[in-house]
Amino acid sequence: MKILTTIPVTIPVVFLLILTHLTSFSQPDSAKISEKAMAFADSLVKSDTYQSWNVYADLAPLSVIKFYGGKDGYLEHIKSGRLRTVSSIDEDAPQLKLLSLMTANDQWQCLIRESRYFHKDDKKFHQVTYFLGQSKDEGESWKLFDLSYNKIANIIYIFPEVFGDLAIPEPSILSEQEEIARQQQQQAQAAAANKKTVSKKK
Question: Rounded to whole angstroms, how far apart are CA atoms 140 and 3?
Answer without folding.
Answer: 52
